[in-house]
């Protein structure tokens, strides 16, 4: 398999705006009539490359007015509690924290899982996440990042979802055992009376 160097990609692209590990899409969320910037990250696990990436993203941040959603594999944790049975760079963690702060992004809790990457010898890290502009948390108050079940990858998928989606009315449940109570039928008739006549069937 042939590898393409950064220089070759930049020649094909025409300038330096192409980066191997980032995809930025600016567009419109049609149903909500919102402009948005989606940034997909696949960061290097090399500290100097991460540092360069955070710097580039911080520069690019000021060029967009639309609110950001940044998600992907950052290949770094924010604190020691996001690691188990493995070590990481404290300097890398600090630089990542600075990037989040400088870009005014919010990292909110992961629901359902504590870690997003699972390695050999019980190694675990939270490397994957969504970072959002405050705008999104104000606009969609029940937004969650949910850790899903892992399949073939050593990373779990993460779903960014609005927990307050209206799935319609809840189904009505009736427990037949209630009919054994003497006052059940009277209570039902009394409560349903405002809704008109009804016929009973004992099937």
TrEMBL record:
<dbReference type="InterPro" id="IPR036691">
    <property type="entry name" value="Endo/exonu/phosph_ase_sf"/>
</dbReference>
<protein>
    <submittedName>
        <fullName>Uncharacterized protein</fullName>
    </submittedName>
</protein>
